[in-house]
Write a structure and sequence with these properties.
- The protein has eight helices and ten strands.
- It is α/β, with parallel strands linked by helices.
- The chain folds into two domains: about 1-90 and about 240-263, ATPase, nucleotide binding domain (Nucleotidyltransferase, domain 5); about 95-235, Nucleotidyltransferase, domain 5, CATH 3.30.420.40.
- The strands form two sheets. A five-stranded mixed sheet has the order 3-2-1-4-5.
- Helix 2 packs across helix 8 (about 245-260).
- The chain is globular and about 60 Å long.
């Protein structure tokens, strides 16, 4: 029995096809302006790579900000629930999930069974989100995935006076004009992101084990800085790409529904 989960985010869209509690195929694409177009494209790509048709999918759950615009799903489930469920599948011991998406960030606390106990989200400001990193990387003329590598070479990370994206962008421009080493600026950017996220995570009360989901989890500069701010060790997700955690969670809800459970 094949099931699927589709996570339509502001910057990327993800699809996961599962069978018997294992991932058959996963795909990540850049999101389009219209959420339904992103959903159709990423799902069709996943199906094609798996050698399947939509009629082969027993149940499909959608999540992400664009979930209510997906025409082919059977159910829509919140990002919070899906990221918690997906993180638990990736790291069975996890009790706290930190997710940094393109335009929001979330901290989720799970109970011993993996059910959500408490969460907090920031979707009102770009600081602490993937958008913050994207803006800063563009100013520095770097690819987004270069920020972590750059910061690892830093000897004296800069300190930003404000976590606000607009003011931080102005600071980066000034530092570049002052010929501050770009690796020190990159480290400062990652640290500013981590500082903002640490405040959010601490507000729900951290419980070990802690893991990160979302694309920013692949930026070691942010992860390492966040560990220092929180004073804990963050468990790295190595089983699959942490960016597809929400889609995995959606697929797991689809599996539960297809098997006779209730979402």
């Amino acid at each position: 029995m094949f099931v699927s989960g589709v996570d339509v985010g502001s910057l990327t869209s993800k699809a996961v096809i599962m069978k018997d509690d294992r991932i058959v195929k996963s795909v990540i694409i850049k999101s389009k302006a219209r959420p339904w177009e992103s959903a159709d494209e990423v799902m069709d790509m996943a199906l094609a790579r798996a050698g399947l048709d939509r009629k082969d999918i027993k149940n499909c759950v959608g999540t992400g900000y664009g979930r209510d615009k997906i025409s082919f799903i059977d159910e829509a489930v919140s990002e919070i629930a899906c990221h918690g469920r997906g993180a638990r599948w990736l790291v069975p011991s996890v009790r706290t999930v930190i997710d940094i998406g393109g335009q929001d960030c979330k901290a989720i606390r799970l109970d011993a069974k993996g059910d959500m106990m408490k969460f907090i989200t920031n979707d009102k400001c770009a600081s602490g989100t993937g958008r913050f990193l994207e803006v800063m990387a563009k100013v520095m003329n770097l690819d987004l995935d270069e920020l972590g590598e750059m910061s690892a070479r830093s000897k004296q990370p800069v300190t930003f006076a404000s976590a606000c994206t607009v003011w931080a962008q102005a600071d980066v421009i000034q530092q570049l004009n002052d010929k501050v080493p770009i690796e020190d600026i990159a480290a400062g950017v990652n640290n500013a992101m981590a500082s903002r996220m640490a405040i959010l995570a601490n507000s729900i009360g951290l419980e070990n084990d802690v893991c990160m989901t979302g694309g920013v989890a692949k930026n070691n500069g942010v992860v390492n800085a966040l560990e220092k701010h929180l004073g804990i060790r963050i468990k790295r997700i190595r089983r699959e790409d942490p960016q597809i955690a929400g889609a995995i969670g959606a697929a797991l809800f689809a599996m539960e529904k297809a098997s006779g459970g209730v979402i």
